[in-house]
Amino acid sequence: MKKLTLKDVAKQLGVSTATISNAFNRPDQLSANKRTEILEACKEIGYTGPNRAAQILRKGQSNIVALVLADSLDYMVTDPVANTFIQGVSRVLRENQKHLLLYAGDSDTITDVVDFVDGFICYGAPRNGALSTQLNQQSKPVVTVDFNLEGRPAINIDNEKASYEIAKAALRPGDRAAILGLRLIDSPSTCRIYDSPLLDAESSITYRRLDGYCRALKEMGIEVATDWIWNLPENAGMYAVQAAREVLQSWPRPDVILCMSDIIALELLQCALTMGIDIPGELRITGFDGIEEAARTRPYMATVCQSSVEKGMEAAKLLLSGDNTSMSLPYEIKLGETI
Amino acid sequence: MKKLTLKDVAKQLGVSTATISNAFNRPDQLSANKRTEILEACKEIGYTGPNRAAQILRKGQSNIVALVLADSLDYMVTDPVANTFIQGVSRVLRENQKHLLLYAGDSDTITDVVDFVDGFICYGAPRNGALSTQLNQQSKPVVTVDFNLEGRPAINIDNEKASYEIAKAALRPGDRAAILGLRLIDSPSTCRIYDSPLLDAESSITYRRLDGYCRALKEMGIEVATDWIWNLPENAGMYAVQAAREVLQSWPRPDVILCMSDIIALELLQCALTMGIDIPGELRITGFDGIEEAARTRPYMATVCQSSVEKGMEAAKLLLSGDNTSMSLPYEIKLGETI
DNA sequence: AACAAAAGGTTAAACGATTTAGAACGCTTA
DNA sequence: TAAGCGTTCTAAATCGTTTAACCTTTTGTT
């Protein structure tokens, strides 16, 4: 009871394998009659169509798109931002009969998939730096989101501008300000930056956000000291709690804390409220992303809203179109009640 | 500048293609010397290893596992239970150098992937019923989670028993009880069941939960009327809100509401609190799943805790082991403050 | 010394399709 | 009649590996 192959079918129907193949793939290459005749015969004898594995080899096309997520999948899948992004990607891929391979950005290499996937969507700078290089050196299409890879199309919002704007809205003259940042330096735990060397400052969106904050701070005449900048290795509650405690216990306490994500801002808010700090009276907080939960807190969070679903959809569309032009998506500053 | 093939390399090194192949795949088939010599030469001339697409065809193995999620990916990815499940799966797959293909359970067919994936993990009964049949008819390994497919190994908790226990803990003699159920009948929107025909009652876990509730209700001498059972088409907040409003506005109001998921229970709680109903004084609520958020509410939710991560990990392990034995995982009844 | 077994390699046939070049056919046109 | 053309189909090369079967040489055993 072996599986039928094109050859078997051809023999049974008394035609060449090419004709069967054409019946399935290139209707213009044979008469309509013959085609329906063949397809019906196939259905009858239980041949469901050309073997995909063989097609992949021969055609050099698999209809599989790899979605490279910045961190380990363990972290990413629970992050609501990444989550809705995946949603957007999957929607467009499905509409186009493509498949989605989830790939961890902390993997060692892409050589084990590059031969068979049709392209890559890369969400955030891969934690394993070598991956970026490899992605860029191979020839299949790549679309990057929330970071840049030389010569490859990118989907982004204007992070510098957005950060500048939200910071500007939150700051008052004479403020002490702190920043809770994300992936700015290479450290496995939450800590202040001080003089640590910066991590791929060119391509990272968190650096664009830092740039925006700093521009606003400078304009307000507020000094930016690196010991007032914290760094979180991942966008996860666990690290955020730690950072929140530290910054809130530091003395003198800042008047404003700019957070590079809502996840961070929410934990900070929670922590501050528990400590009995009045928001925004004694402390102002800003987030980033506009996740749903940020709209449900009391007081509700000041943040930069961006549509992750749309990002995902646009990324997928861009990859499938084969276009090479980057794209800047709109965002919205939501003043909220925390500033 | 074409890509190097095994043949090219063989010619350049003056050995047969088989030897190169063996150097990469079967170290025991050639001397250690020759092997390192070959591998080094490969690195030098830039051959990164056998082409994966060709391997897939030839070996009939791709290292890709399809994760079939019950619903459209759009819904699933945001559900925290599904989410952590994916996390568990991905963790084990990565440890074993396997890849994860995300597949929507409302897809039309699996013929477009069955030829190249190594197996399927099926999470929940596919929304498109034909998929189950197709999955069962093909010969690659399948592991089911939270539903059953004849002859295939399944990973589950004892849903009937767990539901019985939590219901038993929540009920008092003489109670009026309502049930907010999930995917019991085929309806696109939230509604009561009445006499609607049941949906694949055999394989669905939500039927096991219903069985458990009913057993507890009967033991307490409480009548179970189908117009006190609501059905939600998906485990999503949107539908839950609707059901919550309806059931809370019905008269006489139930004393206990048994919810088949925490998502439902949380929306119900929220809704009840907004209406000024005292929990658990005027109304008792139970959930199911034990998602993190259920532990953070005030009062915190009575629910059945099960570890989705573990489910995912076990499912992946089971698939990779090739074993054919089903598995029942532990759960824990958490009494909470809502009963 | 004779022979069996192991070690190290090679050859060539799969794996299951796609696709180019061209054959066979029927028809029109000069 | 021969040439020209469009249609429909076939033969054969190709995609890049893996692996069963086979052939030498070396090693081990008695």
Automatic annotation (TrEMBL), chains A, B:
Q: Where are the transmembrane segments?
A: none
**An annotated Gene Ontology molecular function:** transcription cis-regulatory region binding
* Keyword Transcription regulation attached: yes
Answer whether the UniProt record assigns the keyword DNA-binding to this protein: yes
Under Pfam families, the record lists:
LacI, Peripla_BP_3
Keywords on record: DNA-binding, Transcription, Transcription regulation
SMART domains the UniProt entry points to: HTH_LACI (SM00354)
User: Which Gene3D superfamilies does this chain map to?
Assistant: 3.40.50.2300, lambda repressor-like DNA-binding domains
- Residue stretches making up the HTH lacI-type domain: 4-59
PANTHER family noted in UniProt: LACI-RELATED TRANSCRIPTIONAL REPRESSOR, TRANSCRIPTIONAL REGULATORY PROTEIN
Name of protein: LacI family transcriptional regulator
